[in-house]
Amino acid sequence: MQLGDGDIVVVNEEGDAQRAIPKDDKLIGNETTSLCGSNAWHDMRVAVQHIEDQPPAMILMSTDGYANSFRDDAGFLKVGPDLLRMVRDEGLDYVDKELTNWLTEASSSGSGDDVTLGIICRLKC
Fold first, then answer.
1. Residue ranges of the domains in the chain?
2. Model-level pTM?
3. Phi/psi at 87 (nearest 5 deg)?
4. Which residues, in sequence order, are bridge partners of residue 9?
């Protein structure tokens, strides 16, 4: 479920990334829907993905400032596979340690907006 701008990106085991919920076509420019709206429940977007056979390796949830810091959607979606590779190669502690710097750099060279990123990663045993 999603309300407003921001992104939920799902990355599979092979490193292919896609949005879990497509962008909201009603949002233009910096306009967004909000939980504070009187009919916010009308603006909720919902998608169901069956993942029994192939659960995602990683899920990224970010504020709109992160995607807006990239020149195009392909550049933004590349973050998912890159982070998955770094987690696998360097570990979660490394990504955790560097994440604030990466987000600050992305915003500084991009949108200048505040950026928040949440990562859910399925570790192999």
1. 7-121
2. 0.81
3. -60, -45
4. 19, 60
